Amino acid sequence: MCGIVGYIGFRDAYPIIIKGLHRLEYRGYDSAGISLFDKELKVYKKAGKVSDLESFVKDIDLGGTMGMGHTRWATHGAPSDRNSHPHSSGDRKLTIIHNGIIENYGIIKETLISKGHVFKSDTDTEVLIHLVEDIQNETGLDLREAVRVALTKVIGAYAIVIMSAEEPDLLIAARKGSPMVIGVGKGEYFIASDATPIVEYTKNVIYLNDNEVAYICRENLLIKNIDNTVQTPYIQELDLKLEMLEKGGYDHFMLKEIYEQPRSIRDCMRGRIYPQQGKVQLGGIKEYTEKLKNIDRIIIVACGTSWHAGLVGEYLIEEYARVPVEVEYASEFRYRNPIITEKDLVIAISQSGETADTMAAIELAKEKGATIFGICNVVGASIPRTTHAGVYTHAGPEIGVASTKAFTAQVTVLTLMAFYIAQQRGTITQSKLVEHLTELNNIPELVEKALKSNDHIKKIAAKFKDSANCLFLGRGSSFPVALEGALKLKEISYIHAEGYPAAEMKHGPIALIDDDMPVVFIATKDSSYEKVISNIQEVKARKGHVIAIVTEGDTEVKGMADFVIEIPQTDEAFVPLLATIPLQLLAYHIAVMRGCNVDQPRNLAKSVTVE
């Protein structure tokens, strides 16, 4: 959500910034802007895409070796040129870009207006740069100190970069609750919301911590906390390759990422499972082995697709580790007064590791004494640094806004955690563990096989691309798969879709069934197979159109469904990893046929870093 890019050094800043903004487009945005310093401070901004900004400035001299850029996802103020970032102070000597929300901006704005400040936008961000200006005017403080003081007066979340016309060798960056990374080069520094705009230029990065302010010049960097204490930054090397950020010949990042799942699932398991020994090894949580033997309950907190993965995890952990599991929307959990004890384990799941609601849920659970594990895809993100321990998914960068490989990676890690906890608690036999791990080790090959149905799925998509509604139904651990399938379809094709437990159809949704309603069933041969067949018959009796995900070789469902998509036979525990694949492809092809922007669906952001 929103994107920040900054540069100071010896190169022309504009090409670096504009390329960086393109790299951050996946985060979701509605406007873009840049600020450059070349003898004077220049600001250019435009509602729309980064390409619209490029067209707007194509005939302008864009020199300068210091600058910053921003893609905005509207919160305060509608998408427009005037609400786009950067925003300037009243005297135009300062400019700012900002991710996050300043919650008390209204009170500050009223005070500043009473002092004569005039605002040109509806944003909370403009209020912050006017506050810095006001502090300087009233106290005579230098810019560094004025920014620090201003940040002590605001409530909310922010990642900011500030430039000054009077200090052409200084960028000031700060964060609280919104991600920011600094790339370290030789005689140059890069700033961004995540590492994707930086990896082309340097592998060495610093992840700013909450309440830290960075003062960045061409030859040096100083980081202090909000209390003005100097901090010693930790420089780490990026495990990210530039080619991971390219489409690699695919039409869309989403399709590329769907096809990367055999590799990403394998990477999740590498070095963690030993099928012949019947052993799971998770180094990130091994220090908590004794804790796992004595926990009373597991609470999984997540949002969106990660919440669906958590639901799959609930089935697996309860089945194999025999521990009660609750799966909570982080956005709701944080506003309750949940009953949490020191004998609870909280597992927080987030692809980006920056989800604001999940971060807040973690802090709440920590205050109550729970042990917190994180499941995250981005090394160095806030959640891995905040939790007590955790497991990275190693799925690689996911650029498509609609999660695909992140979901199956999260399910894979939760599967490993279920077996690991079961192993520690002695709730699974060694022979059963050998059997399950052997089957799990084969899943990447089975996913490759499931992907071969792509052309068949594309034909089915053509039949239903003009549908107004769609139902997705499943039982057991296939119910979360149904939820995820519905989410993918609505996210990228804008078709209204709902997922339900198949048995719940008779408790309301069956009223929607008619000859215009496609119904997608996960109908694999498992413990609920006969029950799902009954549900299919109920839909067919009401003239609904049935698309069924079935086990390879199934003839019974094939005889009653309008369309079937086969997936390879596997153990019931691993069906979610396979059944998800055709649902992702179905949503993708329908969206493409409808002319939708698959990688950047409207109104959505990849990482929701504000409430």
TrEMBL record:
Record GO terms (molecular function): carbohydrate derivative binding; glutamine-fructose-6-phosphate transaminase (isomerizing) activity
Keyword Transferase: yes
Subcellular location(s) per record: Cytoplasm
The SIS domain, residue ranges: 288-427, 460-601
CDD domains listed in its UniProt record: GFAT, SIS_GlmS_GlmD_1, SIS_GlmS_GlmD_2
SUPFAM superfamilies tied to this protein: N-terminal nucleophile aminohydrolases (Ntn hydrolases) (SSF56235), SIS domain (SSF53697)
The protein's enzyme class: transferase
Main location: cytoplasm
Residue span(s) of domain Glutamine amidotransferase type-2: 2-219
Keywords: Aminotransferase, Cytoplasm, Glutamine amidotransferase, Repeat, Transferase
Reaction(s) the record says it catalyses: D-fructose 6-phosphate + L-glutamine = D-glucosamine 6-phosphate + L-glutamate
Top-rank taxon, per record: Bacteria
One example of a Gene Ontology biological process annotation: fructose 6-phosphate metabolic process
InterPro entries (alphabetical): GATase_2_dom, GFAT, GFAT_N, GlmS/AgaS_SIS, GlmS/FrlB_SIS, Ntn_hydrolases_N, SIS_dom, SIS_dom_sf
Binding partners and assembly: Homodimer.
Function, as annotated: Catalyzes the first step in hexosamine metabolism, converting fructose-6P into glucosamine-6P using glutamine as a nitrogen source.
PANTHER family: GLUCOSAMINE--FRUCTOSE-6-PHOSPHATE AMINOTRANSFERASE, ISOMERIZING (PTHR10937), GLUTAMINE--FRUCTOSE-6-PHOSPHATE TRANSAMINASE (ISOMERIZING) (PTHR10937:SF0)
Protein name per Swiss-Prot or TrEMBL: Glutamine--fructose-6-phosphate aminotransferase [isomerizing]
Organism: Mucilaginibacter frigoritolerans
Taxonomic path: Bacteria, Pseudomonadati, Bacteroidota, Sphingobacteriia, Sphingobacteriales
Gene behind this protein: glmS
